[in-house]
Amino acid sequence: MAKIAFILLCHKDPEGIIRQAERLTAAGDAIAIHFDGRAKSADYERIRAALKGNPAVTFAKRRVKCGWGEWSLVAATLSALKSAVDAFPDATHFYMLSGDCMPVKSAEYAHGFLDAEDVDYIESVDFFGSDWIKTGIKEERLVYRHFFNERTQKRLFYTAFELQRRLGLRREIPADLQMMIGSQWWCLRRRTVEWVLDFCRRRKDVMRFFRTTWIPDETFFQTIVRHLVPETEIRSRTPTFLMFTDYGMPLTFYNDHYDLLLGQDYLFARKISPDATELKRRLAELWASEGAGFEISDEGRSLFRFLSGRGRIGRRFGLRAWEAESTLGAGRELLMVACKKWHVAKRLVERVRAHTDIPAVEYVFNEADTPMPDLGGIESSIEKRGRHRRSFLRMLFEHYGSDRLVICVDPSEFDLIRDLSSDRARTSLLEIVCDFSDDYLTGHARRVGLAGEKTPREVLDRLLPTIRRDIAFESERMRDADLPRHIRIGSDASADETAAALARFLDVPIETARHLAADHLYSD
Predict the structure, then answer these.
(1) Is residue 207 left, alpha or beta, with left meaning phi > 0 and alpha meaning psi from -120 to 50?
(2) CA distance 314 to 215
(3) pLDDT tens column, 105-162
(4) Which pTM does this prediction carry?
(5) Angle at the Cα of 459 from the Cα atoms of 455 and 460, rounded to 5 degrees
(6) Residue from 443, 442, 447, 431 nearest 465 by CA
(7) What is the CA radius of gyration of the chain?
(8) SS3 of residue 477 by DSSP
(9) 8 A C-beta contact, residue 74 and residue 184
């Protein structure tokens, strides 16, 4: 059975560290602690004294003064790793933790998880080919030498960087290494850790290189492990659940995140707020529990993207340079049906095709598998249709040999709707406003990845009001934009009212519109 030696990097909260060490070792595991050399010596001595009698606790032989982004963080990790390897010969795995981490599964579950596959868990993606780095310098982290800390010595950091750049003092990356990048929170097998430590002793050139890179804790282990271990024995993921904003700031979890955290496919989570005492208590009890079952829904990141994206501007379909003067064509009319319940709009489109001569297609900008004619490849993906939307729609007009075309759009695509409404061609918008039951919204959340089949009821109960408000906001946004020929009909409208709206929208006889508005148009 797996035995974990936790590698704990910490710099504050001695009482919290003591509790964390006692909790983790009580389940039969071990822990090696590195307490920052910049922290108070009195706090360090308090930790050592409290844990002195615990044989499953050891300390890094050297306390390194750590700074964010510096080699010192890697040096501290290596120091703690060496102590753990020597002190715990029966440890099978070495798991990186911080003082802000807490378990989100039981120890029983964690051991079973690590026993299930003989692999290493470390996020490790190509440094140059991925978009892992969201802001700041990228290649410059490696090809220039960094002797100063960007946060505490900003002027010196950028002066040295600019001087090297002007003098052309770029350096080569070690030729036999493929540079990788990823989270510093990993779990490695004993054999892998021994290989890494041996590599550090043998390859002084690589050690010199990494000592002057910037933020090496995101590249050192990620690169060396990938260099030493076969790809089939690496799971490129962190076993610790953490999320970052678009600006690179870590997300903090609070008391009301308990159910969400348990549903994620991870063993630990960071950062737990120091004030989340109830969350910490419940997670501590969870770690010690036996026979606990976990329903993995894993919707955390998609849920965060949804909630943080609400109200954000700028994610629009901007006009491309080659489309700036493009138009759908003079004398043409684009008829857009906006409806959140896609099956309702599709039902209407099917009747339009059956009872009129107006060509109609479904959610061409939302569904990849929407039935469409061969247009030479531009129709092959949602990305291509959206990137060249005017060209794509013109080709649809030409394919059907018609000056009128009906398409379905999701109300969330406001910028697309507004952009097409500004075209020189005539445009009309029919908004079908529907009622949404909790069951429907739950299904919608699962379809778009905001929830899974096993998402806890408590998470859904908090999520559904937000989705409902978001749908209402989409409708209000279209109404407030004062779009030309914007017609709204609701599921509470009578058959005559619906027929009148459809006759006006499609410019068809009222008798034809009555066929379109027949029973069951809105039914689920």
Answers:
(1) alpha
(2) 30
(3) 999 999 999 999 999 999 999 999 988 887 778 999 999 999 999 888 989 999 999 9
(4) 0.64
(5) 80
(6) 442
(7) 29
(8) helix
(9) no
- Which residues lie below 8 Å from residue 111, measured CB to CB, with a gap of 6+? 1, 2, 3, 4
In DSSP terms, 32 is beta-bridged to 7, 58
- Are 104 and 267 in contact by the 8 Å Cβ rule? The answer is yes
| Beta carbons of 414 and 340 less than 8 angstroms apart | no
| Residues 81, 184 contacting (CB under 8 angstroms) | no
- What sign has the CA pseudo-torsion 415, 416, 421, 422? positive
Q: How many residues belong to the chain?
A: 524
CA 404 to CA 486: how far, in whole Å? 17
d(CA 90, CA 1): 10
Task: Report how far residue 524's alpha carbon sits from residue 435's, in angstroms, rounded to the nearest whole number.
Answer: 10
- Sign for the CA dihedral angle at 196, 201, 202, 204 comes to positive
Look over the chain and give the mean of its residue pLDDT values, rounded to a whole number. Answer: 89
Q: Which residue has the tokens 């479904």?
A: 362
In the numeric block, the tokens 């089939």 are attached to 232
Collapse the DSSP code of 68 into the 3-class scheme (helix H, G, I; strand E, B; otherwise coil) and give the result: coil
- The per-residue pLDDT for 324 is 38
The DSSP output letter for 113 is H
Nearest residue to 430 (alpha-carbon basis) of 371, 476, 369, 498: 498
Element housing 428 (H / E) = strand 426-433
Angle at 230 between CA 224 and CA 236, to 5 degrees: 70
pLDDT digits (tens, 9 = 90+) for 198-217: 999 999 999 999 999 999 99
Q: Is 175 exposed, middle or buried (0-12, 13-18, 19+ CB in 10 A)?
A: exposed
Q: Residue 286 is encoded by which pair of tokens? A: 């969870």
Residue 370 in contact with residue 362, Cβ under 8 Å? Answer: yes
Report the distance separating Cα 369 and Cα 70, nearest Å.
48
269 pLDDT band (50/70/90 cuts)?
Answer: very high
Q: Which of 274, 238, 227, 255 is nearest to 97 (CA)?
A: 238
CB 34 within 8 A of CB 96: no
